[in-house]
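C-alpha cells in:
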C-alpha cells in the first residue's frame, strides 16, 4: 500500500473513527442492558430482603465503566473495506476506494488510473465528515436508565418479609463486635507482656527490696544516726509502694469476708471463700483451673453439632463465667480482670446458638489467655504486699536494733532473704537479752538460781512472804519507742535517770510521725479517728 500513501492514510483515519463509533454504540447498549438487570435485582432485593443489598449511588457509576470494558472486548471491528465503503458513500466516488483495494495486487491495465484518481481525491476528503461523532437519540436511554437506578438505590426502602435483613445485620454486628473485642484484647495483652506477670514479684517491689538489703549491709555500728536516716528513706519508699497497692484495686480482696453478701448458692459462697483465700496468699491456681476447664468446654462446644448438647454446654460455660465475673467484680475489685471476663462473655454471646467459627474461637481463646494473665497479676500483687509487709517489719526491727546500738552491716550477707533477716534479728535480740537468770535448770549464764546457771527449764522457787528481805523497788522509767516489745530484761547496777534527753525525744517522735500513715493503713483505723490521732502526735513536740 506504499504505492498510494495518501489513500492509505485516509483509510486508516476513517477506520479509527469508525472503530470508536462502534465501541461507543456497543458501550451504550451494554450499559442499558446492565442497568436493566441491576434495576430488577435492586427491586427484588429491596422488596424481599432475600439477599444483601449491593447497590449504592457509587456502585451505579461503575456500570458505564463495566459496559465500556465489555464493549472493547467484543469481537469484529471495522476493517479497510468498511472504511473504503464509507468514503465512497460519503464522496459519491463510484466505489473508487473499494476498487483501489481490490486491484492493489492486480496487474490490470486500469490499475494506474485508479491509483492516480484515488491519490488525487484523498487529500480533499475530511475523515470527520466521512465518520462523524454524533449524539444519537438512542444515547438518552442508557443515561435515563442510570439516573433511574441511582434514584432507586437511594430511595427505594428495604423490606424484610422473611427476616433475612435482620439476620444479615446481626451477623455484621457480631463480626464488628469480634473485631473490636479482638483489638482490645491484643492491646491489653501487649501491656501485660511487659509486666512479666509470671515472676514471683513485680520489678518495682524486687528493686525496692534489693535496695533495702544493700542498705542493711551498709549500716555502721558506730553511726546510728546515719543508719536511722537510711532506714527512714527505705521505709518511706517501701511504704509508698505498699499504700499504692493496698489502697488500689486489691483493697477489697483483703477485706474480711462479709457473710451478708449474696453470691448465689451456698456452693458459690464456699467456692468464693477458697478463691479469695488463695489469692490473698498469692496463689491463683484454683482460678486458673477454672479457666482451664472453661477452655476445654469451649473446645468441646466448637466440635459439637448437636443443638441440644450445644445449648447445655453454653449454659454451663455461661454459669462459670457469671461466677468468675461476680467474684472478680465484688470480691477482687480488679477492673481489668472483670473487663477480660466480660469480653469472653460478649464474644460467646455473639456466636450463641450457632457453631463457633474459627475466627470466634480464636478471639475467645485470646481473651481467656488475657484473663489468666490478669489473675496472675492479681496474685503477684498479693505476693508483693506480703513481701513489702516483711520488709517494713524488717525495717522496724532494724530501727530497734539501731536504737540499742547493735545494728552492724557486717552481720548481713548479700544472699540473705527477708526471712533470714527476721531470724537474725531474733537471734541478735536474744543474745543481747541474756543476763542474770533466776532459773532452776541447766544452762550457760551468770545467774544465781536455785539450780544451774543461765537459761533453762526449772520449777517455781518456793516463797515465804513472812521473811524480811532487803528488796528495794527499782523499776526503771524506760524510754518509749515505737514497735513491738520483743523482750524485756533486768540488769544489776545503778539505774539511770528516767528523763529523756530532748534530742532523743525528738528523734523518737519524728520516727513515729513519719511512720504514722503506714500504721493507720495497716491497722485499718476508721476514717473518723484519723484526724484526731494525727493532731495528738502533732502536739507532742510542744
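Residues out:
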Amino acid at each position: 500500500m506504499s504505492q498510494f500513501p495518501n489513500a492509505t492514510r485516509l483509510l486508516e483515519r476513517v477506520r479509527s473513527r469508525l472503530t470508536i463509533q462502534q465501541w461507543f454504540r456497543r458501550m451504550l447498549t451494554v450499559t442499558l442492558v446492565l442497568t436493566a438487570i441491576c434495576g430488577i435485582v435492586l427491586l427484588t432485593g429491596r422488596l424481599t430482603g432475600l439477599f444483601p443489598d449491593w447497590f449504592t449511588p457509587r456502585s451505579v457509576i461503575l456500570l458505564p465503566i463495566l459496559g465500556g470494558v465489555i464493549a472493547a472486548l467484543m469481537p469484529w471491528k471495522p476493517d479497510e473495506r468498511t472504511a473504503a465503503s464509507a468514503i465512497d458513500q460519503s464522496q459519491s466516488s463510484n466505489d473508487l476506494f473499494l476498487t483501489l483495494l481490490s486491484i492493489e495486487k492486480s496487474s490490470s491495465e486500469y490499475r494506474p488510473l485508479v491509483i492516480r484518481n484515488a491519490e488525487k481525491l484523498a487529500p480533499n476528503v475530511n475523515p470527520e465528515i466521512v465518520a462523524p461523532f454524533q449524539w444519537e437519540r438512542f444515547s438518552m436511554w442508557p443515561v435515563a436508565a442510570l439516573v433511574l437506578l441511582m434514584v432507586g438505590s437511594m430511595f427505594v426502602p428495604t423490606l424484610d418479609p422473611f427476616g433475612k435483613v435482620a439476620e444479615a445485620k446481626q451477623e455484621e454486628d457480631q463480626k464488628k463486635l469480634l473485631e473490636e473485642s479482638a483489638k482490645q484484647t491484643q492491646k491489653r495483652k501487649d501491656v501485660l507482656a511487659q509486666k512479666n506477670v509470671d515472676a514471683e514479684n513485680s520489678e518495682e517491689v524486687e528493686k525496692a527490696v534489693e535496695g533495702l538489703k544493700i542498705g542493711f549491709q551498709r549500716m555502721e555500728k558506730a553511726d546510728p544516726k546515719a543508719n536511722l536516716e537510711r532506714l527512714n528513706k527505705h521505709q518511706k519508699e517501701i511504704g509508698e509502694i505498699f499504700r499504692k497497692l493496698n489502697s488500689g484495686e486489691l483493697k477489697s480482696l483483703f477485706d474480711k469476708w462479709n457473710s451478708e453478701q449474696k453470691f448465689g448458692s451456698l456452693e458459690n459462697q464456699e467456692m468464693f471463700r477458697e478463691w479469695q483465700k488463695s489469692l490473698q496468699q498469692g496463689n491463683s491456681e484454683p482460678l486458673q483451673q477454672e479457666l482451664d476447664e472453661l477452655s476445654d468446654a469451649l473446645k468441646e462446644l466448637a466440635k459439637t453439632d448437636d443443638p441440644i448438647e450445644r445449648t447445655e454446654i453454653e449454659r454451663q460455660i455461661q454459669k462459670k463465667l457469671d461466677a468468675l465475673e461476680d467474684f472478680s467484680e465484688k470480691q477482687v475489685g480488679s477492673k481489668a480482670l472483670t473487663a477480660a471476663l466480660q469480653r469472653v462473655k460478649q464474644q460467646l454471646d455473639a456466636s450463641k446458638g450457632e457453631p463457633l467459627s474459627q475466627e470466634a474461637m480464636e478471639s475467645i481463646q485470646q481473651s481467656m489467655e488475657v484473663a489468666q494473665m490478669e489473675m496472675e497479676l492479681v496474685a503477684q500483687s498479693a505476693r508483693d504486699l506480703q513481701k513489702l509487709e516483711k520488709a517494713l517489719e524488717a525495717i522496724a526491727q532494724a530501727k530497734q536494733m539501731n536504737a540499742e546500738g547493735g545494728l552492724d552491716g557486717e552481720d548481713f550477707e548479700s544472699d540473705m532473704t527477708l526471712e533470714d533477716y527476721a531470724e537474725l534479728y531474733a537471734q541478735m535480740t536474744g543474745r543481747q537479752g541474756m543476763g542474770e537468770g533466776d532459773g532452776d535448770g541447766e544452762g550457760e549464764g551468770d545467774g544465781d538460781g536455785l539450780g544451774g546457771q543461765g537459761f533453762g527449764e526449772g520449777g517455781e522457787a518456793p516463797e515465804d512472804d513472812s521473811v524480811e528481805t532487803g528488796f528495794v523497788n527499782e523499776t526503771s522509767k524506760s524510754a518509749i519507742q515505737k514497735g513491738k516489745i520483743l523482750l524485756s530484761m533486768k540488769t544489776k547496777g545503778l539505774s539511770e535517770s528516767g528523763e529523756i534527753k530532748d534530742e532523743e525525744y525528738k528523734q523518737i517522735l519524728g520516727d513515729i510521725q513519719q511512720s504514722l500513715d503506714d500504721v493507720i493503713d495497716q491497722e485499718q483505723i476508721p476514717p473518723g479517728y484519723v484526724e484526731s490521732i494525727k493532731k495528738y502526735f502533732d502536739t507532742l513536740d510542744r
